[in-house]
């Protein structure tokens, strides 16, 4: 059985890696006034962060179901099944779009998978699925493996302020932090598919240190892990942080990724994230 792997643009998997692993990507969009741009196709992260300096913050939109059905039908000419991995259903209807489209197409079996997270941590699932598909594993075996990954996947992120998340309705329990927005760098995470506050921390430096402390709790077992630093237009800061972590944790494989236009719209420039999974 030949299995295709599909994800959406919010996994922010570099194009070259997508092509090497034969990963198919459905883009979400950002909308500036009357102009709509598909992220990772028509607008890069760098262009986005430049645009928002001069324009009002955009809105975002999920892919139309028709784009999913069109892609699935195209894949059915070559594949027997599709594993379709998407950002958390608690913050976007993209996963549901894949479910709906999967029920509409014939000649191909669609296995939608809710990552319950986003960005390159979502990408960990996608890359694993693509490598297993290339190795000839069945869709059921692939789903079983990525479900197993959920047990060890962790991700935390901090934002410079919560106004974007509140405005976009992506943050649950936001009321608890109102009034102290200026005093804290809230550490956030996904819980039950939603973005919720994890801890209130006073400074950016302390928030980043707290993420590393949480990381240490998992990796001190000595088992092999891979980790990703995710930044919102703070590449230099991410590189410095990566070098520090590589020196401290030589047995962990680190990479750098970014919050692209859609997720960047909700987090704002300056956000930093840190995610990891057992290899």
Key structural traits:
279 residues, alpha/beta, Rossmann fold, Hypothetical Protein Tm841, Chain: A,domain 3, 2 domains, four-stranded parallel sheet, 39% helix
Write the layout of secondary structure elements.
Layout: E1 3-8, H1 15-21, E2 23-26, E3 29-32, E4 35-38, H2 45-54, E5 59-61, H3 65-75, E6 81-86, H4 94-104, E7 109-114, H5 119-134, H6 139-149, E8 154-158, H7 163-168, E9 187-191, E10 194-199, H8 204-219, E11 225-231, H9 235-248, E12 252-258, H10 261-267, E13 272-278
Parallel strand pairs: 1-2, 1-6, 6-7, 11-12
Antiparallel strand pairs: 3-4, 3-5, 8-9, 8-13, 9-10, 11-13
Explain this structure to me?
The protein has 2 domains: 3-28 and 63-149, Rossmann fold (3-Layer(aba) Sandwich), CATH 3.40.50; 154-278, 2-Layer Sandwich (Hypothetical Protein Tm841, Chain: A,domain 3). It is built from 10 helices and 13 strands. It has helices at residues 15-21, 45-54, 65-75, 94-104, 119-134, 139-149, 163-168, 204-219, 235-248, 261-267; strands at 3-8, 23-26, 29-32, 35-38, 59-61, 81-86, 109-114, 154-158, 187-191, 194-199, 225-231, 252-258, 272-278. Helix 3 (65-75) packs across helix 4 and helix 5 (119-134) runs antiparallel to helix 6 (139-149). The longest helix has 16 residues, at 119-134. The mean pLDDT is 92. GO terms for molecular function: lipid binding. InterPro entries: DegV, DegV_C, DegV_domain_contain.
């Amino acid at each position: 059985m030949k299995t295709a792997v599909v994800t959406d643009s919010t996994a922010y998997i570099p194009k070259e890696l997508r092509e090497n692993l034969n990963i198919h990507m459905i883009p979400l969009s950002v909308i500036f006034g009357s102009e709509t741009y598909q992220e990772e196709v028509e607008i890069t992260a760098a262009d986005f962060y430049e645009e928002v300096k001069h324009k009002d913050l955009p809105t975002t939109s999920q892919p139309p179901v028709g784009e999913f059905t069109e892609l699935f039908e195209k894949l059915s000419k070559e594949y027997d099944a599709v594993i379709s991995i998407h950002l958390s259903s608690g913050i976007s209807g993209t996963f549901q779009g894949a479910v709906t489209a999967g029920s509409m197409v014939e000649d191909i079996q669609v296995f939608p998978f809710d990552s319950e997270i986003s960005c390159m941590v979502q990408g960990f699932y996608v890359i694993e699925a693509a490598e297993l598909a290339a190795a000839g594993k069945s869709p059921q075996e692939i789903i079983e493996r990525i479900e197993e990954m959920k047990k060890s996947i962790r991700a935390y992120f901090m934002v410079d302020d919560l106004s974007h998340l509140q405005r976009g309705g992506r943050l649950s329990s936001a009321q608890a932090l109102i009034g102290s927005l200026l005093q804290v760098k809230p550490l956030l995470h996904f819980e039950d598919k939603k973005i919720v506050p994890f801890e209130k921390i006073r400074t950016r430096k302390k928030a980043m240190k707290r993420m590393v402390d949480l990381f240490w709790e998992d990796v001190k077992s000595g088992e092999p892990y891979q980790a990703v630093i995710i930044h919102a237009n703070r590449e230099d800061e991410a590189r410095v942080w990566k070098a520090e972590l590589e020196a401290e944790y030589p047995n962990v494989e680190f990479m750098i990724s970014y919050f692209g236009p859609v997720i960047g719209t909700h987090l704002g420039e300056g956000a930093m994230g840190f995610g990891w999974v057992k290899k």
